[in-house]
Amino acid sequence: MNDETTKCACSCSAAPTLIFSCSGAADVGELSDRAARQLTRDDKGKMFCLAGIGGRVSGIMKSTETAEAVLAIDGCPLHCAKNCLEQAGFKNFKHIEITALGFTKGKTPVTDEAVMTVTDEAKKHLSQETCS
């Protein structure tokens, strides 16, 4: 994928990539949130408001419908971000669960190294996007 979030791998014009993260109270929720923010700083997508999906805010729903790609980052197996998107009618998105990467809820220090592990995995998922 290009460094530009407005173009996909084949360089066609596209809407931005949106990133929705768990921001739960647990350490893995904080890690999800920090990874989404880092991905935004790295121009791999734009962190977007998961609460807006849950609240069915029209502008957020419309932007998500027209996004080139959507990534959900969940901290734990409860899959709150994934479930919010699915309950709002979204089915075509990538998903990462932090605990599946070897982190343990309640026992994971939120370090720069941990954030990098999550962002590296997210970048792999996002690089799989292609134009239709």
Kindly state the mean pLDDT as a whole number? 89
- Structural domain tally: 1
Order of neighbouring strands in the sheet with most strands:
2-1-3-4
Number of strands: 4
* Stretches with pLDDT under 50, minimum 5 residues: 1-13
Query: What structural category arises from helix and sheet content?
Result: alpha/beta
Question: What is the helical fraction, as a range of percent?
Answer: 25-40%
Backbone shape? globular
Number of helices: 5
Distance from first to last alpha carbon: 14 Å
What proportion strand? 5-15%
In this structure, how is the largest beta sheet organized?
Answer: 4 strands, parallel
Note the run of SSEs as H and E: EHEHHEHEH
| Overall radius of gyration | 14 Å
Question: Can I get a quick summary?
Answer:
This protein has 132 residues and is an alpha/beta fold. It has one domain.
